[in-house]
Design a protein that fits this description.
2 strands, disordered N terminus, 7 helices, single chain, 179 residues, mainly alpha, 2% strand
């Protein structure tokens, strides 16, 4: 079965992983993909580095480390920097920072959806503010109308007009401007 992915290290690793190949010395390929920076440089995750250095430390036969470098397409200087960083203890701080960092980045579709949801959220907040302002205005208008209604009606006892005297009835008619 021939699968063409190009000539990159990631492609070779994926093909070997798919086809179930192992190295000639029986060790298993590193099953962590190598990423790319925006400028096209390779970016190695902490999992890749730690697995590579585990295999580096286990390689004790003559020429096995050189073979490991060739198989992973790495320079000795890169590995030497990883070893020095591990020995200085920088990896533990880096691993802690990586553990605290969110697991994955958003793609463009998710970013667009988030922007759309934020816009919708802002519009809904504005609607709520308008509704609250309208509610306040209506409340004040109700209070004003209630006050106007109370002040326009004369303060008379709640006696039915049929039981009022003639003077009270005339006063009642004038209070409601019916005479």
């Amino acid at each position: 079965m021939v699968i063409r992915y190009g000539n990159s290290l990631v492609a070779r690793m994926v093909v070997r992983h798919i086809q179930g190949r192992t190295r000639g010395n029986g060790s298993i390929m590193i099953d962590v993909e190598v990423g790319r920076t925006p400028t096209g440089m390779r970016s190695f995750s902490m999992a890749y580095r730690s697995e590579f250095l585990r295999q580096w430390d286990a390689a004790i036969e003559r020429g096995s480390r050189a073979k490991l470098l060739r198989e992973n397409n790495l320079a000795y200087g890169t590995v030497h920097r990883w070893i020095a960083a591990r020995d200085r203890g920088e990896w533990t701080a880096s691993m802690r920072a990586a553990a605290e960092k969110p697991g994955r980045r958003m793609d463009s579709r998710e970013r667009a959806e988030l922007a759309q949801l934020r816009k919708e959220n802002q519009q809904l907040r504005q609607k709520v503010e308008q509704a609250e302002a309208a509610q306040q205005i209506l409340g004040k208008a109700f209070e004003l109308l209630e006050h106007v209604t109370k002040s326009s009606a004369p303060e008379t006892p709640a006696i039915p007009p049929a039981l009022m005297s003639v003077a009270e009835y005339e006063q009642w008619l004038e209070g409601y401007r019916l005479s």
